[in-house]
Amino acid sequence: MSDNLFTLLGRKALVVGCDSGIGLACARAIAAAGASLVMSGLEKERGEALAREIASDSGQSVHYRAVDVRDEASVEALVAAATGIMDGLDIAMNNAGIPGPAAAIQDLAARDFDNLFAINVRGAWLSMKYEIPAMLAAGQGGSIINLASTAALSGLAYVGAYSASKHAVAGLTKSAAIELAPHNIRVNAIAPGPVQTDLLHNMRAGRSQVSDVRPASVPMGRVAQPEEMAGTVVWLASQAASFVTGSIISVDGGVIAA
Ligand code: NAD
Protein backbone atom coordinates (compact mmCIF):
# COMPACT_ATOMS: atom_id res chain seq x y z
CA MET A 1 0.00 0.00 0.00
CA SER A 2 1.31 3.47 -0.94
CA ASP A 3 2.26 6.00 1.76
CA ASN A 4 -0.25 8.39 0.21
CA LEU A 5 -3.52 6.54 0.68
CA PHE A 6 -5.37 8.88 -1.66
CA THR A 7 -3.01 8.87 -4.65
CA LEU A 8 -4.14 7.37 -7.96
CA LEU A 9 -0.62 7.44 -9.38
CA GLY A 10 -0.15 4.70 -11.97
CA ARG A 11 -3.85 3.78 -11.99
CA LYS A 12 -5.91 3.51 -15.19
CA ALA A 13 -9.31 5.14 -15.13
CA LEU A 14 -12.33 5.28 -17.42
CA VAL A 15 -15.15 7.77 -16.90
CA VAL A 16 -18.29 6.96 -18.89
CA GLY A 17 -20.37 10.01 -19.76
CA CYS A 18 -18.34 13.04 -18.72
CA ASP A 19 -19.02 15.88 -21.15
CA SER A 20 -20.16 18.16 -18.34
CA GLY A 21 -21.18 18.48 -14.70
CA ILE A 22 -20.20 15.87 -12.12
CA GLY A 23 -18.48 13.51 -14.57
CA LEU A 24 -16.25 16.23 -15.97
CA ALA A 25 -15.30 17.54 -12.51
CA CYS A 26 -14.49 14.00 -11.34
CA ALA A 27 -12.50 13.24 -14.51
CA ARG A 28 -10.34 16.30 -13.80
CA ALA A 29 -9.83 15.22 -10.18
CA ILE A 30 -8.98 11.62 -11.11
CA ALA A 31 -6.26 12.81 -13.52
CA ALA A 32 -5.03 15.37 -10.98
CA ALA A 33 -4.69 12.53 -8.44
CA GLY A 34 -2.30 10.78 -10.84
CA ALA A 35 -4.30 8.32 -12.94
CA SER A 36 -4.15 8.00 -16.68
CA LEU A 37 -7.64 8.58 -18.00
CA VAL A 38 -10.05 7.83 -20.80
CA MET A 39 -13.02 10.18 -20.87
CA SER A 40 -16.13 9.50 -22.91
CA GLY A 41 -19.44 10.94 -23.89
CA LEU A 42 -21.61 12.29 -26.67
CA GLU A 43 -19.60 15.38 -27.69
CA LYS A 44 -16.54 14.18 -29.60
CA GLU A 45 -14.93 17.47 -30.64
CA ARG A 46 -15.54 19.25 -27.37
CA GLY A 47 -14.53 16.14 -25.42
CA GLU A 48 -11.25 15.82 -27.29
CA ALA A 49 -10.46 19.48 -26.52
CA LEU A 50 -11.29 18.90 -22.83
CA ALA A 51 -9.06 15.81 -22.77
CA ARG A 52 -6.15 17.84 -24.15
CA GLU A 53 -6.75 20.51 -21.50
CA ILE A 54 -6.90 17.98 -18.65
CA ALA A 55 -3.78 16.22 -19.95
CA SER A 56 -1.92 19.51 -19.97
CA ASP A 57 -3.13 20.48 -16.46
CA SER A 58 -2.44 17.09 -14.88
CA GLY A 59 0.56 15.86 -16.82
CA GLN A 60 -1.25 12.55 -17.29
CA SER A 61 -2.23 10.64 -20.43
CA VAL A 62 -5.85 11.64 -21.14
CA HIS A 63 -7.94 10.54 -24.12
CA TYR A 64 -11.57 10.99 -25.16
CA ARG A 65 -13.76 8.45 -26.96
CA ALA A 66 -17.32 8.94 -28.14
CA VAL A 67 -19.93 6.63 -26.64
CA ASP A 68 -23.70 6.37 -26.46
CA VAL A 69 -24.42 4.08 -23.54
CA ARG A 70 -27.71 3.00 -25.17
CA ASP A 71 -25.68 1.13 -27.78
CA GLU A 72 -24.01 -2.08 -26.58
CA ALA A 73 -21.43 -2.16 -29.41
CA SER A 74 -20.45 1.43 -28.59
CA VAL A 75 -19.89 0.59 -24.90
CA GLU A 76 -17.97 -2.60 -25.74
CA ALA A 77 -15.74 -0.64 -28.16
CA LEU A 78 -15.16 2.10 -25.57
CA VAL A 79 -13.98 -0.32 -22.88
CA ALA A 80 -11.79 -2.17 -25.40
CA ALA A 81 -10.26 1.12 -26.59
CA ALA A 82 -9.68 2.36 -23.02
CA THR A 83 -8.09 -0.92 -21.97
CA GLY A 84 -5.90 -0.87 -25.08
CA ILE A 85 -4.80 2.75 -24.69
CA MET A 86 -3.95 2.41 -20.98
CA ASP A 87 -2.88 -1.25 -21.04
CA GLY A 88 -5.46 -2.18 -18.42
CA LEU A 89 -8.29 -0.80 -16.33
CA ASP A 90 -8.36 -0.20 -12.55
CA ILE A 91 -10.99 2.46 -12.04
CA ALA A 92 -14.34 2.97 -13.76
CA MET A 93 -16.84 5.71 -13.02
CA ASN A 94 -20.23 5.18 -14.65
CA ASN A 95 -21.73 8.64 -14.69
CA ALA A 96 -24.00 8.89 -17.76
CA GLY A 97 -27.49 9.93 -16.77
CA ILE A 98 -30.48 12.01 -17.77
CA PRO A 99 -33.40 13.28 -15.68
CA GLY A 100 -36.10 12.38 -18.21
CA PRO A 101 -39.17 14.58 -18.62
CA ALA A 102 -40.95 15.65 -15.46
CA ALA A 103 -44.41 14.08 -15.23
CA ALA A 104 -46.78 12.46 -12.78
CA ILE A 105 -46.47 8.65 -12.81
CA GLN A 106 -49.69 8.30 -14.85
CA ASP A 107 -48.64 10.95 -17.38
CA LEU A 108 -45.15 9.74 -18.33
CA ALA A 109 -44.94 8.32 -21.87
CA ALA A 110 -43.66 4.73 -22.14
CA ARG A 111 -41.00 5.77 -24.68
CA ASP A 112 -39.62 8.34 -22.20
CA PHE A 113 -39.54 5.72 -19.42
CA ASP A 114 -37.71 3.32 -21.77
CA ASN A 115 -35.17 5.95 -22.86
CA LEU A 116 -34.44 6.94 -19.27
CA PHE A 117 -33.88 3.32 -18.23
CA ALA A 118 -31.80 2.69 -21.39
CA ILE A 119 -29.34 5.39 -20.29
CA ASN A 120 -29.48 5.41 -16.50
CA VAL A 121 -29.87 1.69 -15.78
CA ARG A 122 -29.06 -0.37 -18.87
CA GLY A 123 -26.17 2.02 -19.65
CA ALA A 124 -24.66 1.54 -16.18
CA TRP A 125 -25.17 -2.22 -16.42
CA LEU A 126 -23.65 -2.41 -19.93
CA SER A 127 -20.67 -0.36 -18.76
CA MET A 128 -20.05 -2.77 -15.88
CA LYS A 129 -20.66 -5.76 -18.18
CA TYR A 130 -17.55 -4.79 -20.18
CA GLU A 131 -15.49 -3.14 -17.44
CA ILE A 132 -15.61 -6.16 -15.12
CA PRO A 133 -13.92 -8.65 -17.51
CA ALA A 134 -11.24 -6.03 -18.24
CA MET A 135 -10.52 -5.70 -14.52
CA LEU A 136 -10.69 -9.46 -13.92
CA ALA A 137 -8.24 -10.07 -16.78
CA ALA A 138 -5.61 -7.87 -15.12
CA GLY A 139 -6.14 -9.64 -11.80
CA GLN A 140 -5.19 -6.50 -9.83
CA GLY A 141 -8.61 -5.70 -8.35
CA GLY A 142 -10.27 -2.40 -9.09
CA SER A 143 -12.84 0.18 -8.13
CA ILE A 144 -16.13 0.86 -9.89
CA ILE A 145 -18.09 3.96 -8.93
CA ASN A 146 -21.66 4.34 -10.13
CA LEU A 147 -23.87 7.42 -10.00
CA ALA A 148 -26.91 6.94 -7.84
CA SER A 149 -28.69 9.91 -6.24
CA THR A 150 -30.55 10.82 -3.09
CA ALA A 151 -33.47 9.82 -5.36
CA ALA A 152 -32.08 6.26 -5.01
CA LEU A 153 -32.74 6.45 -1.26
CA SER A 154 -36.13 8.16 -1.24
CA GLY A 155 -38.85 9.00 -3.75
CA LEU A 156 -38.89 12.22 -5.78
CA ALA A 157 -42.29 13.48 -6.89
CA TYR A 158 -42.83 14.07 -10.61
CA VAL A 159 -39.59 12.36 -11.61
CA GLY A 160 -40.63 8.89 -10.41
CA ALA A 161 -38.97 7.05 -13.30
CA TYR A 162 -35.69 8.87 -12.56
CA SER A 163 -35.98 7.88 -8.90
CA ALA A 164 -36.74 4.27 -9.91
CA SER A 165 -33.74 4.25 -12.25
CA LYS A 166 -31.44 5.37 -9.45
CA HIS A 167 -32.88 2.74 -7.06
CA ALA A 168 -32.00 0.25 -9.82
CA VAL A 169 -28.43 1.59 -10.03
CA ALA A 170 -28.13 1.08 -6.28
CA GLY A 171 -29.33 -2.52 -6.66
CA LEU A 172 -26.86 -3.22 -9.46
CA THR A 173 -24.07 -1.67 -7.38
CA LYS A 174 -24.74 -3.77 -4.28
CA SER A 175 -25.17 -6.99 -6.28
CA ALA A 176 -21.97 -6.43 -8.29
CA ALA A 177 -20.11 -5.63 -5.06
CA ILE A 178 -21.01 -9.03 -3.62
CA GLU A 179 -20.10 -10.87 -6.84
CA LEU A 180 -16.75 -9.10 -7.20
CA ALA A 181 -15.58 -8.92 -3.58
CA PRO A 182 -13.55 -12.17 -3.92
CA HIS A 183 -11.63 -10.49 -6.75
CA ASN A 184 -10.89 -7.32 -4.78
CA ILE A 185 -12.97 -5.28 -7.21
CA ARG A 186 -14.93 -2.82 -5.10
CA VAL A 187 -18.23 -1.45 -6.39
CA ASN A 188 -19.84 1.58 -4.79
CA ALA A 189 -22.14 4.43 -5.76
CA ILE A 190 -22.33 8.02 -4.72
CA ALA A 191 -25.74 9.50 -4.00
CA PRO A 192 -25.46 13.23 -4.64
CA GLY A 193 -28.03 15.69 -3.42
CA PRO A 194 -28.72 18.64 -5.71
CA VAL A 195 -25.65 19.62 -7.73
CA GLN A 196 -25.47 22.71 -9.94
CA THR A 197 -25.47 21.11 -13.40
CA ASP A 198 -27.57 21.13 -16.59
CA LEU A 199 -29.37 18.04 -15.32
CA LEU A 200 -30.53 19.77 -12.12
CA HIS A 201 -31.55 22.88 -14.05
CA ASN A 202 -33.66 20.81 -16.49
CA MET A 203 -35.17 18.68 -13.75
CA ARG A 204 -36.21 21.67 -11.65
CA ALA A 205 -37.61 23.55 -14.66
CA GLY A 206 -39.63 20.49 -15.70
CA ARG A 207 -41.00 19.80 -12.21
CA SER A 208 -42.06 23.42 -11.72
CA GLN A 209 -44.04 23.17 -14.98
CA VAL A 210 -46.03 20.12 -13.88
CA SER A 211 -46.52 20.92 -10.19
CA ASP A 212 -45.90 23.47 -7.47
CA VAL A 213 -43.63 21.01 -5.65
CA ARG A 214 -40.71 22.82 -4.00
CA PRO A 215 -37.14 21.55 -4.30
CA ALA A 216 -36.30 19.33 -1.31
CA SER A 217 -34.66 21.45 1.35
CA VAL A 218 -30.94 21.00 1.90
CA PRO A 219 -29.81 21.40 5.53
CA MET A 220 -26.59 23.03 4.33
CA GLY A 221 -28.78 25.61 2.63
CA ARG A 222 -27.37 25.43 -0.89
CA VAL A 223 -26.82 23.15 -3.86
CA ALA A 224 -23.38 21.64 -4.39
CA GLN A 225 -20.90 22.48 -7.12
CA PRO A 226 -19.88 19.50 -9.29
CA GLU A 227 -16.32 19.67 -7.88
CA GLU A 228 -17.74 18.82 -4.43
CA MET A 229 -18.46 15.28 -5.64
CA ALA A 230 -14.85 14.68 -6.69
CA GLY A 231 -13.26 14.11 -3.28
CA THR A 232 -15.60 11.21 -2.52
CA VAL A 233 -15.03 9.71 -5.97
CA VAL A 234 -11.21 9.94 -5.70
CA TRP A 235 -11.40 8.46 -2.20
CA LEU A 236 -13.55 5.55 -3.42
CA ALA A 237 -11.11 4.97 -6.29
CA SER A 238 -8.09 5.00 -3.99
CA GLN A 239 -6.52 2.59 -1.50
CA ALA A 240 -7.93 4.79 1.27
CA ALA A 241 -11.28 3.06 0.60
CA SER A 242 -9.78 -0.46 0.46
CA PHE A 243 -12.51 -2.00 2.68
CA VAL A 244 -15.44 -0.04 1.24
CA THR A 245 -17.68 -1.94 -1.14
CA GLY A 246 -21.40 -2.17 -1.82
CA SER A 247 -21.99 1.24 -0.27
CA ILE A 248 -24.29 3.96 -1.53
CA ILE A 249 -22.61 7.05 -0.15
CA SER A 250 -24.67 10.21 0.25
CA VAL A 251 -22.88 13.42 -0.68
CA ASP A 252 -25.89 15.57 -0.12
CA GLY A 253 -25.46 18.44 2.32
CA GLY A 254 -27.70 16.56 4.76
CA VAL A 255 -30.73 15.87 2.51
CA ILE A 256 -31.14 12.22 3.49
CA ALA A 257 -30.49 12.93 7.16
CA ALA A 258 -33.37 15.39 7.09
P1 NAD B 1 -24.97 16.58 -16.82
O1 NAD B 1 -26.16 16.68 -17.71
O2 NAD B 1 -24.04 17.72 -16.72
O3 NAD B 1 -24.09 15.30 -17.19
C1 NAD B 1 -24.64 14.10 -17.64
C2 NAD B 1 -23.60 13.43 -18.53
O4 NAD B 1 -24.16 12.17 -18.95
C3 NAD B 1 -23.33 14.20 -19.82
O5 NAD B 1 -22.18 15.02 -19.67
C4 NAD B 1 -23.09 13.13 -20.85
O6 NAD B 1 -21.70 12.95 -21.03
C5 NAD B 1 -23.62 11.87 -20.20
N1 NAD B 1 -24.68 11.24 -21.02
C6 NAD B 1 -26.00 11.51 -21.09
N2 NAD B 1 -26.60 10.69 -21.96
C7 NAD B 1 -25.64 9.86 -22.44
C8 NAD B 1 -25.63 8.79 -23.37
N3 NAD B 1 -26.75 8.37 -24.01
N4 NAD B 1 -24.46 8.15 -23.62
C9 NAD B 1 -23.31 8.55 -23.01
N5 NAD B 1 -23.25 9.56 -22.12
C10 NAD B 1 -24.41 10.20 -21.85
O7 NAD B 1 -25.57 16.22 -15.41
P2 NAD B 1 -24.90 15.78 -14.01
O8 NAD B 1 -25.78 16.36 -12.98
O9 NAD B 1 -23.46 16.03 -13.98
O10 NAD B 1 -25.19 14.20 -14.03
C11 NAD B 1 -24.20 13.22 -13.85
C12 NAD B 1 -24.78 12.05 -13.08
O11 NAD B 1 -25.06 12.48 -11.75
C13 NAD B 1 -26.10 11.52 -13.65
O12 NAD B 1 -26.09 10.10 -13.59
C14 NAD B 1 -27.13 12.08 -12.70
O13 NAD B 1 -28.29 11.30 -12.66
C15 NAD B 1 -26.37 12.07 -11.38
N6 NAD B 1 -26.90 12.97 -10.36
C16 NAD B 1 -26.98 14.31 -10.58
C17 NAD B 1 -27.50 15.13 -9.57
C18 NAD B 1 -27.62 16.62 -9.73
O14 NAD B 1 -28.27 17.27 -8.91
N7 NAD B 1 -27.02 17.22 -10.73
C19 NAD B 1 -27.91 14.57 -8.36
C20 NAD B 1 -27.83 13.20 -8.19
C21 NAD B 1 -27.30 12.41 -9.19
Number of H/I helices: 7
CATH structural architecture? 3-Layer(aba) Sandwich
CATH topology: Rossmann fold
- Major β-sheet annotation: 7 strands, parallel
Bound molecules: nicotinamide-adenine-dinucleotide
State the CATH superfamily name.
NAD(P)-binding Rossmann-like Domain
Helix percent band: 40-55%
SSE string: EHEHEHEHEHEHHE
- At the first level of CATH, what is the class? Alpha Beta
Strand order of the largest sheet: 3-2-1-4-5-6-7
Q: Number of DSSP strands?
A: 7
SS-based class: alpha/beta
Total individual domains: 1
**% residues in beta strands:** 5-15%
Radius of gyration (Å): 17 Å
Low-confidence stretches: none
Mind sketching the topology for me?
Layout lengths: L11 E5 L4 H12 L3 E6 L2 H15 L3 E5 L5 H15 L4 E4 L15 H29 L3 E6 L12 H21 L4 E8 L5 H13 L19 H8 L10 E4 L7
Helix pairs in contact: 1-2, 1-7, 3-4, 4-5
Nicotinamide-adenine-dinucleotide (NAD) binds next to helix 1 and helix 6.
Family: Belongs to the short-chain dehydrogenases/reductases (SDR) family.
Pfam family, one: adh_short_C2
InterPro entries: NAD(P)-bd_dom_sf, Sc_DH/Rdtase_CS, SDR_fam
